[in-house]
């Protein structure tokens, strides 16, 4: 699952997301999108296009790339030195609600660690999983 010429952190994030989708969310046979650069999403799971964003502990500003269409689900991985700290999961319908509520003013916000906080985008509109909820398989 880590093959290819993408950046290594991105590949690690995709691997974590595949494990999360399969083992925590019980998705059947999620697979990597081989055309991720052209399509904007990284994984296809049960017909849903999943965008994966990763922020490592080395990233001091806690921000990564913008969230861009097309996607149906977003997985944001907060990756520590030797473990996954948190995983955020957001559906496009929840994202659209945040836009409708004017919580978001930009339809392509930059993914950030703050989104995982209680009052952040995913903390408020999606679901944040703490390390203890998935550490047995990640």
Overall geometry: globular
Percent helix: 25-40%
Element pattern in H and E: HEHEEEEEHEHE
Strand order of the largest sheet: 1-2-3-5-6-8
Question: C-alpha Rg, in Å?
Answer: 14 Å
Number of helices: 4
Which structural class is indicated by helix and strand composition?
A: alpha+beta
Low-confidence segments, ≥5 residues, pLDDT <50? Answer: 1-6
Q: Could you report the average pLDDT, rounded to the nearest whole number?
A: 88
Determine the N-to-C terminus distance: 14 Å
The number of distinct β-strands equals 8
Largest sheet: 6 strands, mixed
Fraction in beta strands: 25-35%
How does this model look, in words?
This protein is α+β, with helices and mostly antiparallel strands and 138 residues long. Helix content is 25%, strand content 29%. β2 (43-45) and β3 (48-56) form a beta hairpin. The longest helix is centred in the first third of the chain and has 17 residues, at 8-24. The protein is globular. The protein starts with 7 loop residues before the first helix and ends in an 8-residue tail after the last strand. The model is unreliable at 1-6 (pLDDT under 50).
């Amino acid at each position: 699952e880590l093959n290819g010429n993408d950046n290594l952190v991105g590949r690690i994030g995709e691997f974590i997301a595949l494990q999360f989708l399969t083992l925590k969310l019980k998705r059947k046979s999620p697979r990597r999108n081989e055309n991720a650069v052209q399509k904007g999403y990284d994984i296809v799971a049960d017909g849903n296009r999943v965008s994966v964003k990763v922020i490592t502990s080395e990233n001091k500003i806690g921000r990564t790339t913008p969230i861009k269409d097309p996607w149906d689900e977003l997985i944001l991985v907060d990756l520590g030195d030797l473990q996954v700290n948190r995983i955020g999961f957001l559906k496009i319908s929840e994202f659209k609600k945040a836009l409708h509520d004017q919580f978001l003013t930009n339809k392509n916000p930059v993914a950030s660690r703050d989104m995982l906080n209680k009052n952040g985008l995913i903390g408020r509109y999606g679901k944040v999983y703490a390390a203890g909820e998935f550490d047995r398989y990640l």
